[in-house]
Structures are given as C-alpha cells and as structure tokens.
Design goal:
Elements (H helix, E strand, L loop, with lengths): L1 H10 L4 H24 L43
Length: 82
C-alpha cells in the first residue's frame, strides 16, 4: 500500500499535500486517544489497587487537555474528602 501511495505521488505531485495532511490528522488523532487513555482520571487500568482514581485528584490537579483562563494552582477544594 505504501508503494502504491509513493507511485501515485510520483505521477501526481499535487497529491503530496493531501497525503501529508491526512497522515498528520491520523497521527494527531491517535496521539490524542493515547493521551486520554494514559492520563485521563476517568480511565482505570488497575481496578484492584486504584478502583476510583478520580477521587484522588486534588483541586490543583489539571486533568483537562486544554483549559482557557483557569489557573489550577490557585483553586481551593470545595467539597468534602471521601
């Protein structure tokens, strides 16, 4: 399949940006899913030792991928400890 893509790019050089942007989009999507799977507190890989990882988050822990105008270092806890 890779050989076919290279042959098409040699015959039609205008397809090269299409292949680049499609590859970059697929790579970005795969990396985002990997980031969610490894660092999101909603995902529990070890249910015996850490069944509810979201309860161990403090008010200063930033778990969002991108947050606008929120400084997590200055937040205070609003609820009780569980």
């Amino acid at each position: 399949m890779l050989c076919q893509i290279i042959r098409q790019a040699e015959k039609h050089p205008s397809l090269i940006p299409l292949f680049i942007f499609t590859g970059a989009g697929g790579t970005g999507a795969a990396l985002y899913v990997l980031c969610l799977a490894l660092f999101n507190p909603d995902v529990s890989w070890d249910r015996k030792n850490n069944p509810e990882p979201w309860n161990k988050l403090g008010p200063n822990d930033e778990y969002k991928f991108y947050s606008v105008n929120v400084d997590y270092s200055k937040l205070e806890k609003e609820g009780p400890d569980f």
